[in-house]
Amino acid sequence: MARPAHPQAMQPVKPGRTRTAPPTMPPQFPMTGRYRAYTLFDATGFLYLFVGFVALRVVWALGTGSAAWANIQQQLANPLYIGFHVITLAAVCFVAVRFFGLFPKAQPPRIGPLKPPPGPVIVGMLYAAWIGITVLMSAALMGGIS
Amino acid sequence: MKQFLLKVEPVIWLLFGQGIMIGTMLLTGWVLVMGVLAPLGVVDSLSYEHAHGLASSLIGRVVLVALIALPLWKGAHHIRSLSIDFGGADRDTELATFLYGIASVGSLLAIVAVVRL
Asked: Which ipTM score applies to this complex?
């Protein structure tokens, strides 16, 4: 159902001579059609904000000492934390896939004398970096890197 | 405050964009191992000495600051965007100040956290 958008949305700095219809939200917003992925992409912000603070707690505990480190490991084993992290992992993968797909479309046609590589090459580079960094990070956190 | 937010918008967008790009790349392995596999006992948790040794290196500190701070900015900016889309444009300045304030404090604490390692 279309509903009115904020009256100042898309308002130009100076009113033009052309009369325009008042802005309305698209009828598919927020969870129908292509707006579902758009809304979910934005909603991952809640998980990112929270997981950032969880990571901060972990690093803070590491700086406090071995007892605090053991304590935070115990807390992370709580089913609520595990459930949160499983949902966050799914959200992170969703953000990656959606963003990597959008990234080539957001490139300028030319930066000075340079042209960006073709879209599939950019996407391939992004996936290679993502997989490489994930493997490195996982190996480090599993004790494979000293 | 609205004028200030407009002035710092390029910085916020830089941090937001890197939150999506670098934050996502760093978070995947972190969440997978620290949040799921180690707590479930699929892999062994890092010993304190090993974890401290890794984290207190220069690369470890830089990675950890990025891992903590960049997702905060991605989260703050996307929640703001979601709020505007759901009709919250009237309270945008207050909400943006609050969210970016949280991200700023979290980023400063991230720096403190790696300095005290």
From this structure: 0.96
